[in-house]
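S1.2 Input.
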Amino acid sequence: MIHLYDTTLRDGSQGEGVVFSIEDKLLIIKALDQLGIHYIEGGYPGSNPKDVDFFKKAQELELKTSEIVPFGSTYYPKYQPEDDPNLKALLDTGSKTVTIFGKTWKLHALDVLRVSPEQNLAIIRESVEFLVSNGRSVIYDAEHFFDGFNDDSAYALDSLQAAADGGAKCLVLCDTNGGRLPLEVQDGVKQVKDKIDLPVGIHAHNDAGVGVANSVLAVQAGVTHVQGTFNGFGERCGNANLSGIIPTLKLKLGLDCISDKQLQLLTQTSRLVSELANLPHDDRQAYVGRSAFAHKGGLHTDAIRKNRLTYEHIDPEKVGNEQRILVSEQAGRGTILKKIEKEYPDRDKNSPEIIALFERMKEAERQGYQYEVAEASFELMTGEIFGHYHPYFQLVGFRVIVEGASTIDMKAEATIKVTGPSGETAHTAADGDGPVNAMDNALRKALEKFYPTLKNVRLTNYKVRVLDTKAGTGAKVRVLLEASDGTDWWGTVGVSENIIQASWEALTESLAYKLYKDRSLRSSSQN
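S1.3 Output.
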């Protein structure tokens, strides 16, 4: 059994641009518990009132598989263990298991703690001993283990033995600087396993780009406890990515860590963490990225129609992801057929609708449209040609005013008039931080009385590309817009010489797709 230890809430939140509120952290804990993560590191309990409040609320959660673990250090040299505020704060959380880190590298003992190597060993042993004597199980993180081991292997092993003598239940070997290579990590783990009879863990960082590889090889060398963060969030280049480690351990090595059913929650958990961090999800992330099982070339798509193993190393559904067929200027009718065959299994390449869709898409791409990431726009086009999609609202007119004394305090106002499903008219206005935000607010305000589910939709990304830079200010622009309703994510596209018009097109299609998707789900459930 491999025990999984998530440190997204602590180590992950130290990454640049990553901020979680208490509510965000609680949502992540619930998701990780459903996924089957064994330990969730909550952070430093005594660092500030916010963390104290977090641990109080976290302990009130009814978790099925996960244990909330506070994190701290060995006691400060100026204290005794029983007087150390850091160790006291760990006990005050009430958690059964606590994690502390200590100095493994002699350099850090001398230059950071400014204690002798012998004093450092005593601090490690006595810190663990104190926590164990107070009824806690202790996971000991050996900070900078591999660098310390490379510098003075005997002392690094002595530091681990000190933690073992104090009663630690697991010794975690940390590549804190993230610069060690897989074979170095594997060798270090083997030597520790030969010398100390305790469960060993791995905590890798990704500064050399091998955080996942180091973690996997450590497991193959005998590690039974793996630490990491979701999406590789973390300081500098990030931590080892649990989104990649977990499926590799289970699907490639056949190791027991979470159930097959829990593994199917992996992609949505990864995307939830990105969403709550307010960061775009990495499309090219292994296993869980949108592009992980995306196919564009005609030869590739033809091959996977015959056997998906030709270009997919696993079944994407095992990790909760999906196969995607990208339609582009390289796509033929066979590629388009493959993309829509689930919805229209009775069509072939010579069906009138397939030919019409192919010609329509080619003409749109000549005008600058691109559907590789704007799959919602492609689905609406397909639905229209097959007679399944009809507009849910009609634009009567809109106006956008941008004003301000400077670019700093500039504001926008959008006025929109639309007709709803029964021909009734809605005429609304709304402010925004920019023209697109104002249009989004006004359009949603107008449509929500007809379609309340649109309240759940929010824009997650907005990109503009100038298609012909030589045309200067008269050039066409392509707007790619991404949106989410908290469950699904989709993209739409708009093209025009007018950026407002292009944005409007992408925006209206985004909301229309939500309504189209909901209607399709209702139809499926009724059948």
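S1.4 Remarks. Residues 294-366 form one domain.
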